[in-house]
Amino acid sequence: MIAPIKNQPAEILPLYKLKITLRGSKPAIWRRVQVPGNINLNRLHDVFQVVMGWTDSHLHQFVDAPIVYSVPSGDDCSRVERLDERRFCLADLARHEKASFVYEYDFGDGWTHEIVVEKILPADPKMKDAVCLNGKNACPPEDCGGIWGYYKLLETVKNPQHEDYQEMLEWLGDQFDPSHFDLPKINAALRGLEI
User: Could you tell me the pTM of the whole model?
Assistant: First the structure.
Protein backbone atom coordinates (compact mmCIF):
# COMPACT_ATOMS: atom_id res chain seq x y z
CA MET A 1 0.00 0.00 0.00
CA ILE A 2 1.32 3.43 -0.96
CA ALA A 3 1.36 5.98 1.86
CA PRO A 4 0.20 9.43 0.77
CA ILE A 5 2.30 12.55 1.20
CA LYS A 6 0.16 14.44 3.69
CA ASN A 7 -0.43 18.19 3.80
CA GLN A 8 3.09 19.26 3.00
CA PRO A 9 3.48 22.93 2.11
CA ALA A 10 4.18 23.87 -1.52
CA GLU A 11 7.76 24.96 -0.60
CA ILE A 12 8.73 21.36 0.15
CA LEU A 13 7.65 19.79 -3.12
CA PRO A 14 8.88 20.83 -6.56
CA LEU A 15 6.82 22.04 -9.50
CA TYR A 16 5.84 19.60 -12.22
CA LYS A 17 5.57 20.26 -15.93
CA LEU A 18 3.08 17.76 -17.34
CA LYS A 19 2.01 16.98 -20.87
CA ILE A 20 -1.56 15.72 -21.25
CA THR A 21 -2.41 14.03 -24.55
CA LEU A 22 -5.84 12.70 -25.48
CA ARG A 23 -5.23 9.12 -26.59
CA GLY A 24 -6.24 8.36 -30.17
CA SER A 25 -6.37 12.00 -31.28
CA LYS A 26 -4.81 12.75 -34.68
CA PRO A 27 -3.70 15.47 -34.95
CA ALA A 28 -2.91 15.27 -31.25
CA ILE A 29 -5.08 17.15 -28.77
CA TRP A 30 -2.71 18.06 -25.96
CA ARG A 31 -1.97 20.51 -23.18
CA ARG A 32 1.17 21.33 -21.21
CA VAL A 33 0.63 22.47 -17.61
CA GLN A 34 2.73 23.40 -14.62
CA VAL A 35 1.40 22.51 -11.17
CA PRO A 36 2.78 22.19 -7.64
CA GLY A 37 3.83 18.64 -6.76
CA ASN A 38 1.63 18.70 -3.67
CA ILE A 39 -1.62 19.23 -5.60
CA ASN A 40 -4.16 16.61 -4.49
CA LEU A 41 -5.36 14.31 -7.26
CA ASN A 42 -8.95 15.54 -6.90
CA ARG A 43 -7.68 19.08 -7.58
CA LEU A 44 -5.49 17.83 -10.44
CA HIS A 45 -8.70 16.43 -11.93
CA ASP A 46 -10.16 19.97 -11.74
CA VAL A 47 -7.09 21.36 -13.52
CA PHE A 48 -7.34 18.72 -16.27
CA GLN A 49 -11.03 19.49 -16.75
CA VAL A 50 -10.28 23.18 -17.29
CA VAL A 51 -7.25 22.82 -19.56
CA MET A 52 -8.80 20.14 -21.74
CA GLY A 53 -12.19 21.84 -21.92
CA TRP A 54 -14.33 19.14 -20.32
CA THR A 55 -17.38 20.05 -18.21
CA ASP A 56 -16.90 17.66 -15.24
CA SER A 57 -20.14 15.87 -16.10
CA HIS A 58 -18.85 12.30 -15.73
CA LEU A 59 -16.80 10.02 -13.50
CA HIS A 60 -13.02 9.91 -13.72
CA GLN A 61 -10.01 8.07 -12.36
CA PHE A 62 -6.23 8.14 -12.38
CA VAL A 63 -4.45 4.91 -13.27
CA ASP A 64 -0.88 4.15 -12.25
CA ALA A 65 -1.12 0.44 -13.01
CA PRO A 66 -1.99 -1.63 -11.14
CA ILE A 67 -3.32 1.07 -8.80
CA VAL A 68 -6.40 3.17 -9.52
CA TYR A 69 -7.08 6.45 -7.73
CA SER A 70 -10.64 7.79 -7.67
CA VAL A 71 -13.35 9.06 -5.39
CA PRO A 72 -14.62 5.84 -3.75
CA SER A 73 -18.15 4.65 -4.40
CA GLY A 74 -20.22 1.60 -3.56
CA ASP A 75 -19.80 0.34 -7.14
CA ASP A 76 -16.03 -0.15 -6.94
CA CYS A 77 -14.66 -3.39 -8.37
CA SER A 78 -12.89 -5.39 -5.67
CA ARG A 79 -10.39 -6.92 -8.14
CA VAL A 80 -8.63 -3.59 -8.57
CA GLU A 81 -6.69 -1.77 -5.87
CA ARG A 82 -8.57 1.52 -5.68
CA LEU A 83 -7.31 4.34 -3.48
CA ASP A 84 -9.09 7.54 -2.48
CA GLU A 85 -7.67 10.25 -4.76
CA ARG A 86 -8.43 12.91 -2.15
CA ARG A 87 -5.69 11.46 0.08
CA PHE A 88 -2.93 11.46 -2.55
CA CYS A 89 -1.06 14.14 -4.45
CA LEU A 90 0.69 14.33 -7.80
CA ALA A 91 4.09 13.61 -6.24
CA ASP A 92 2.74 10.23 -5.05
CA LEU A 93 2.24 9.13 -8.69
CA ALA A 94 4.89 11.10 -10.52
CA ARG A 95 8.06 10.19 -8.71
CA HIS A 96 10.54 11.16 -11.46
CA GLU A 97 10.86 12.85 -14.83
CA LYS A 98 9.44 10.82 -17.72
CA ALA A 99 7.10 9.02 -15.32
CA SER A 100 3.67 8.53 -16.84
CA PHE A 101 0.16 7.66 -15.75
CA VAL A 102 -3.33 7.73 -17.21
CA TYR A 103 -6.30 10.00 -16.53
CA GLU A 104 -9.63 8.54 -17.65
CA TYR A 105 -12.74 10.66 -17.97
CA ASP A 106 -16.28 9.62 -18.92
CA PHE A 107 -16.16 5.84 -18.88
CA GLY A 108 -18.97 5.66 -21.45
CA ASP A 109 -17.16 7.73 -24.10
CA GLY A 110 -13.79 6.53 -22.83
CA TRP A 111 -11.67 9.67 -22.92
CA THR A 112 -8.20 8.42 -21.97
CA HIS A 113 -5.39 10.91 -21.42
CA GLU A 114 -1.71 10.01 -21.30
CA ILE A 115 0.09 12.12 -18.68
CA VAL A 116 3.88 12.44 -18.88
CA VAL A 117 6.09 14.25 -16.39
CA GLU A 118 8.26 16.29 -18.74
CA LYS A 119 10.19 18.18 -16.09
CA ILE A 120 10.45 18.49 -12.32
CA LEU A 121 11.41 22.04 -11.40
CA PRO A 122 12.62 23.55 -8.13
CA ALA A 123 9.94 24.47 -5.62
CA ASP A 124 8.56 28.01 -5.86
CA PRO A 125 6.53 29.20 -2.85
CA LYS A 126 5.01 31.96 -5.03
CA MET A 127 3.51 29.38 -7.39
CA LYS A 128 0.01 28.99 -6.03
CA ASP A 129 -1.96 28.39 -9.23
CA ALA A 130 -1.84 25.86 -12.00
CA VAL A 131 -0.71 27.35 -15.31
CA CYS A 132 -1.34 26.10 -18.83
CA LEU A 133 1.85 26.71 -20.80
CA ASN A 134 0.60 25.71 -24.25
CA GLY A 135 -1.46 23.19 -26.15
CA LYS A 136 -2.95 22.27 -29.46
CA ASN A 137 -6.44 21.71 -30.85
CA ALA A 138 -9.89 21.94 -29.32
CA CYS A 139 -11.32 19.49 -26.85
CA PRO A 140 -14.04 17.28 -28.34
CA PRO A 141 -17.58 18.11 -27.19
CA GLU A 142 -18.96 16.11 -24.28
CA ASP A 143 -21.05 13.03 -25.09
CA CYS A 144 -20.07 12.79 -28.76
CA GLY A 145 -19.25 9.07 -28.56
CA GLY A 146 -15.57 8.99 -27.74
CA ILE A 147 -12.68 9.69 -30.10
CA TRP A 148 -14.27 7.72 -32.97
CA GLY A 149 -17.59 9.50 -32.51
CA TYR A 150 -15.74 12.81 -32.49
CA TYR A 151 -14.07 12.13 -35.82
CA LYS A 152 -17.37 10.96 -37.29
CA LEU A 153 -18.95 14.21 -36.06
CA LEU A 154 -16.19 16.27 -37.73
CA GLU A 155 -16.67 14.39 -41.02
CA THR A 156 -20.42 15.00 -40.84
CA VAL A 157 -20.20 18.78 -40.31
CA LYS A 158 -17.71 19.10 -43.18
CA ASN A 159 -20.22 17.61 -45.59
CA PRO A 160 -23.42 19.66 -46.13
CA GLN A 161 -24.78 16.71 -48.17
CA HIS A 162 -24.59 14.34 -45.19
CA GLU A 163 -28.03 13.30 -43.91
CA ASP A 164 -27.10 14.28 -40.32
CA TYR A 165 -25.36 17.54 -41.26
CA GLN A 166 -28.02 19.96 -39.98
CA GLU A 167 -28.73 17.97 -36.81
CA MET A 168 -25.02 17.82 -35.91
CA LEU A 169 -24.55 21.54 -36.60
CA GLU A 170 -27.45 22.34 -34.27
CA TRP A 171 -26.09 19.95 -31.64
CA LEU A 172 -22.67 21.64 -31.75
CA GLY A 173 -24.25 25.08 -31.31
CA ASP A 174 -21.79 27.82 -32.24
CA GLN A 175 -19.22 27.27 -34.93
CA PHE A 176 -16.90 24.55 -33.70
CA ASP A 177 -13.29 24.85 -34.80
CA PRO A 178 -11.35 21.64 -34.05
CA SER A 179 -8.04 23.52 -34.26
CA HIS A 180 -9.05 26.22 -31.76
CA PHE A 181 -6.99 26.59 -28.58
CA ASP A 182 -7.46 29.65 -26.32
CA LEU A 183 -4.54 29.85 -23.87
CA PRO A 184 -5.57 33.17 -22.19
CA LYS A 185 -9.12 31.88 -21.58
CA ILE A 186 -7.81 28.63 -20.06
CA ASN A 187 -5.41 30.45 -17.75
CA ALA A 188 -8.13 32.87 -16.65
CA ALA A 189 -10.27 29.86 -15.66
CA LEU A 190 -7.31 28.24 -13.86
CA ARG A 191 -6.81 31.38 -11.75
CA GLY A 192 -10.29 30.80 -10.36
CA LEU A 193 -9.48 27.27 -9.17
CA GLU A 194 -8.57 26.56 -5.59
CA ILE A 195 -5.67 24.15 -5.62
Answer: 0.89
